Amino acid sequence: MAYSIHTLPKLDQADTTFQEFSRRLKNLRLQSLKADPDKWVSIYDSEVNQPDDFWWNRLQDSQAIHHILVKNTSESDGPDSKSVLLAGEWVGFVVIIVPDAENKSPEYLMNALYIDTQARGIGLGKRMVRQVIDTVRKHETKAGQAPPFCTASVRHGNDSALALYRKLGFRVVNADGIAEKEGRKYRTIEIRYDI
């Protein structure tokens, strides 16, 4: 089976393709929270009843880049990414938060990574992380600015994710991080990849 990675385009909210992408991303995100609740800071019960605007805002966030892992079918051999995204089955995603224009820090945050349980163990997580690194490399560094770097937080106990990141060159910068969401605190390991 062939898989490909595509970046979700920024579309107008009234566009039916935008609404379809939003629906698919919502379904995949909720699937991730259900399948691996101990690996996320977010909680399924908190996100399942969110209104459409919640999901639309995620797609329209100018600082967010969404890469989607698509399981290709014969129908998904379209001429462009949009065609492939519409025809193929979405089996994974990664979200990158890029620095805003006023931010002096060249930090890119890998905010979420998920691969469907049926597509694990065949190197797709590695491909997705490499896609993140390539995306960060392609973004321009402003004159006089430090080189870009990518960070992520891994929940304690998510040893497979941490092993993958370390294998790809991420280093631990804080083994005792704390993330807080909706009044809950989670122990995390903060990692960094220098470009």
Automatic annotation (TrEMBL):
SUPFAM superfamilies: Acyl-CoA N-acyltransferases (Nat) (SSF55729). Residues 28-195 form the N-acetyltransferase domain. It comes from the Eukaryota. GO terms for molecular function: acyltransferase activity, transferring groups other than amino-acyl groups. Gene3D superfamilies: 3.40.630.30. InterPro entries: Acyl_CoA_acyltransferase (IPR016181), GNAT_dom (IPR000182). This is N-acetyltransferase domain-containing protein. It comes from Exophiala bonariae.
